[in-house]
Specification:
With about 210 residues, the chain is α/β, with parallel strands linked by helices. The protein contains 6 helices and 7 strands. The protein has one domain: Rossmann fold, CATH 3.40.50. It has helices at about 5-15, 25-35, 50-60, 95-100, 120-140, 160-165, and strands at about 40-45, 65-70, 80-85, 105-110, 145-155, 170-175, 185-195. Strand 4 (about 105-110), helix 5 (about 120-140) and strand 5 form a beta-alpha-beta unit.
């Protein structure tokens, strides 16, 4: 199946299933492969707009006391049972606002952050790896021990260094490319499970 046909097929499936975008299938594939939602009750999702990952989170989090927080600089149409925060990921007020909502450390932090693409690969990859680093920095401060972290990351010159840093904090780290992603895209997902509690986030100099 060609790239255009594959994309249209997932978009059609998303519309028929009531998902806000085809990105829902990326998270569903991640869950199928890695069971990231097992025992997760407090879940934080960065760069949530338009909200398809939040829809999947609601489906996968079965407990009645599940607490879900979605964050994006853009407006997200409200979802029942989901707390929404309209802020940039680098807003210094964000961490305290999240913790106020979930009350306890998170079990799972997700990030599907991607910049507005310029078409210039070097610039786009630099911007995206910065977003991945910011997501990790927040995850290290929000997660409880043995919690999980998933982030989008573009393959770039800093890709390997970023993975090495993540491995310092999680006992299980794998890369994964969902079938619902563009196959020619540099987009990957980093699945990091079992946070070891080493809460020394990336220095600002590295961002």
């Amino acid at each position: 199946m060609g790239k255009w046909k594959r994309t249209e097929a997932y978009r059609k499936r998303a519309r028929e299933a009531g998902y806000r975008s085809r990105a829902a299938y990326k998270l569903l594939e991640i869950e199928e492969q890695f069971s990231i939602f097992k025992h997760a009750k407090r879940i934080v999702d960065f760069c949530s707009a338009p909200g398809s990952w939040l829809q999947v989170i609601k489906e996968c989090c079965k407990t009645p006391d599940c607490s879900i927080v979605g964050i994006d600089i853009n407006y997200i149409k409200p979802l029942s049972g989901v707390h929404l925060i309209q802020r940039s990921i680098d807003d210094p007020r964000l961490k305290s606002q999240i913790l106020e909502l979930i009350q306890k450390p998170a079990n799972l932090v997700l990030s599907d952050c991607s910049p507005k693409l310029t078409g210039k690969k070097t610039i786009d990859r630099e911007r995206q790896i910065w977003q991945a680093k910011m997501s990790l920095q927040l995850a290290l401060q929000l997660l409880e021990k043995n919690g999980h972290f998933v982030t989008k990351v573009f393959q770039s010159g800093e890709f390997r260094d970023f993975i090495t840093h993540v491995k310092q904090h999680f006992s299980f780290v794998k890369t994964f490319k969902p079938k619902s992603s563009f196959q020619r895209s540099s987009e990957m997902y980093l699945i990091a499970k079992h946070f070891q509690g080493k809460q020394n986030p990336i220095s600002q100099d590295a961002l």
